[in-house]
């Protein structure tokens, strides 16, 4: 046989096709089940508020309280940095005149200060951007709560609140006062409460559609708590289809979040995780899965004194959620810190101001709660949970401080790593002692997309990676590479 003659294989074309057919079918089904991370923006938090209190401008009023809390308890960047324990906070000045002088230098030439005192630049930048965020968009996501934050009330009262909340939502939609994400949390679909939950859902959606002509707010979602069975989610999906048809809403327009709050939601009676089945039962509506810290820890027999977000049983449950739902496009959210940053002393209206020792105690209590909240959020972020719950306006300063610190501290390293990906057209590269392959590219891009969306980093800062603004806004690492290769 000539060396230039290609060898002939023994597999016939039709034989190979028959063998490959089930493989192609299985690969297609896998790709359908795991489409990858959702390209949409994910809010960094969800603020829960009782339905009995909701108004069209609730998000605006929450922002006002959050800004007042920041100015009252952290009047400067140095105070906030020390309260939450920012890196290098112990090197910052404490005297008011020294802080003011450093602020003036940072405003005049932040780059020069950064070169001489990176902790000062970091603390000032975080504080400045947090203040801007609270003024611009204090609440990213709000959930009108008919469950734990509302309680069990007489039927007529909940009926009235379901209708009034829908009317207020319609007013907020018209006035532009709703946050970018909004929705309602109904009661669980267990035997005791599913009837009440369904009635609230029907009244709210029907009233809202009637007031808006069938238009929903952007990123509207229904949160179903304490999900234990896929059938509960399937029932919600069927009911929403019925309501959509009758209320003039577009089919499939009402999205769903499930809440994972029981051990049985993590591992079922058969020893398997039911999470994928729960998501599938939503019929394509499920966009998120939220972890319920305190119900879950109680379900694991953890006593109240030790129920907190960083308990090992919570880390286990959240890791199972990550493994079960990775690549499905379902966004994950952590729970809430339940210690509120509220001082014990309040001045009576028209009465004398607080005494110095009372003001000192208030500040100490708020700062302790802020530190706990900050550390809980950092733990969530470091373990891959980019969203969590907030229960009080005074938690918003530390929500954004923690998120912004996370992104700003990682900005330089992420920029170098992503720039290497772009420069080498997604070929694996070694940066320092961190080895990346091309599959990490979208994850690195997502770091910047998340940081830009919440206001932690600017688009100009992201351009240090070598990406253009149009490339960043495409949100797809593969599209960026394809376009660059096509233009090469």
Characteristics:
single chain, 488 residues, alpha/beta, TIM Barrel, 3 domains, eight-stranded parallel beta sheet, globular
What does this structure look like?
The chain is an alpha/beta fold and about 500 residues long. It folds into 3 domains: about 45-65 and about 140-390, Alpha-Beta Barrel (TIM Barrel); about 75-135, no CATH class; about 410-485, no CATH class. Helices cover about 55% and strands about 10% of the residues. Strands 7-6-5-4-3-2-1-8 form an 8-stranded parallel sheet. Strands 9-10 form a two-stranded antiparallel ribbon. Helix 3 (about 75-85) packs across helix 6. The two termini are about 40 Å apart.
The secondary-structure element order is HEHHHHHEHEHEHEHHEHHEHEHEEHHHH
In what order do the strands lie side by side in the largest sheet? 7-6-5-4-3-2-1-8
CATH class (first level) name of the largest domain: Alpha Beta
Proportion of β residues?
Answer: 5-15%
Would you spell out the secondary-structure blueprint of this structure?
Layout (H helix, E strand, L loop, with lengths): L12 H21 L11 E6 L7 H16 L3 H8 L11 H13 L1 H7 L1 H20 L3 E5 L9 H21 L5 E5 L8 H19 L7 E5 L5 H18 L7 E6 L2 H4 L8 H7 L4 E6 L1 H7 L12 H14 L5 E3 L22 H27 L5 E3 L5 H28 L5 E3 L2 E3 L4 H14 L4 H4 L6 H6 L2 H11 L1
Parallel strand pairs: 1-2, 1-8, 2-3, 3-4, 4-5, 5-6, 6-7
Antiparallel strand pairs: 9-10
Helix pairs in contact: 2-6, 3-6, 4-5, 5-6, 6-15, 7-8, 8-9, 9-11, 14-15, 15-16
